[in-house]
Amino acid sequence: MTLLRRIASILAAAALAGWGMVAVAADEPALRSAAALVVDANTGEVLHAKNADAVVPIASITKLMTAMVTIDAILPLEEPITITAEDAQAAKAKRRARVPVGATLTRGELLQLALMASENVAAVALGRTYPGGMDAFVAAMNAKAVDLEMTGSRFVEPTGLSSENVATAGDLAKLVRAAGEYGRIAEYSTTPSAEYTIRGRRVAFANTNGLVRGANWEIGVSKTGFINAAGRCLVMEAKVATRSLIIVLLDSVGKYTRIGDANRIRQWLEPDFLAPAEPRARAARTKTAAKSQRAPEARVRTQGAAPTPR
Predict the structure, then answer these.
(1) Exposed, middle or buried: residue 173 (CB in 10 Å: 0-12, 13-18, 19+)?
(2) What is the pLDDT of residues 48-58, one digit of tens each?
(3) Of 272, 220, 261, whose CA–CA distance to 50 is shortest?
(4) For residue range 236-249, what is the model confidence (pLDDT) as tens digits?
(5) Residue 309 lies in a domain
(6) CATH code where residue 63 lies
(7) What 3-state DSSP class applies to 214?
(8) Is residue 249 a contact partner of residue 238, using CB atoms and an 8 Å limit?
């Protein structure tokens, strides 16, 4: 059970004990994420908040900070960087990684892979090649968090694999707002897919946010995240009901819940918006076939090795 879900259990018990908990308004969205925040990006008005001050692991949402620190350093984006064995080890890369040891890409390509496809080894390589190395990079991440007044935040590495990378939903709203001021982050984080030449062959990568790959949303900044300690996370700046909103969804249980919650927020604010059905039926139809090919998601989350954050 993640920290946020333990908090939710305590709050539920408090309500049953008659502690006078404030009931959620009937017209607010019934979100399944353990923490959520919806903020008007222009005015700062909070439209919806749920456990928004809890300090929790943030998984690959970290990579938005990684990208800002990289860009702030004004390093040449066309500079070639070769992935090392140490990069792969730090990123917990699989033996047959899509960005393998020895692959050479430009800093700009690594930046896009970190934001769009959430490639951990790309984020590690960006930190390693920062002036002063990884320690200086992490120090710059924390200094940037202070500048943005992200008072509940702390970073120890650039990927989000560590559960010690923490923040509140309120902190992440500030992070998304700041990230939106970087044109390259806005572009790279919302690119639906891209191909790269890796060891002489073209390899395709897709955005980890399915809403970016669809045609129903107008999204300005996007990042997903997942490790066991954080659950599934999603942050976005998106146009909803003619307003630019920052949406933060943390610790969603189930592969599609964070997407479902985003759609529920939009339906709440745009009653005429028809969200696609969550793909439960399709998942059920393919369950037997999936068992024969790979371990189910729930089983993966109980294994000792840390999963790739998305």
Answers:
(1) buried
(2) 999 999 999 99
(3) 261
(4) 999 999 999 999 99
(5) no
(6) 3.40.710.10
(7) coil
(8) no
Residue 306 falls within a domain, yes or no?
A: no
Residues shown for the chain: 310
Give the range of the structural domain holding residue 274, as residue numbers without chain letter.
Answer: 3-300
List residues with catalytic annotation: 60, 63, 118
In a domain, 56, yes or no: yes
Specify the number of domains making up the chain: 1
Residue whose token pair is 């033996």: 95
CA 122, 234, 87 angle in degrees (round to 5)? 15
What value does the mean pLDDT take over residues 101-109? 98
Helix, strand, coil percent content, the chain, rounded in steps of 5 = 40, 20, 40
* pLDDT tens digits, 286-307: 343 333 333 323 222 333 344 4
Paired tokens of 91: 């990123």
Residue 38 backbone phi and psi in degrees, to 5: -125, 120
Handedness of CA 102, 103, 105, 107 (dihedral sign): negative
Rounded Cα–Cα distance for residues 268 and 26 (Å): 11
Encoded tokens for 208: 């980890």
What's residue 221's pLDDT? 98
Q: What is the 3-state secondary structure (H, E, C) of 35-98?
A: EEEEEECCCCCEEEEECCCCCEECHHHHHHHHHHHHHHCCCCCCCEEECCHHHHHHCCCCCCCC
d(CA 172, CA 286) in angstroms, rounded, equals: 35
**18 pLDDT band (50/70/90 cuts)?**
very low
What is the pLDDT of the chain when averaged over all its residues? Answer: 85
Cβ atoms within 10 Å, residue 51? 21
> Strand pairing of 243-252 and 35-40?
antiparallel
Report d(CA 165, CA 10) in Å as an integer: 24
Let me know if residue 308 belongs to a domain.
Answer: no
- Which pTM was predicted? 0.83
Tell me the pLDDT band of 94, cut-offs 50, 70 and 90. confident
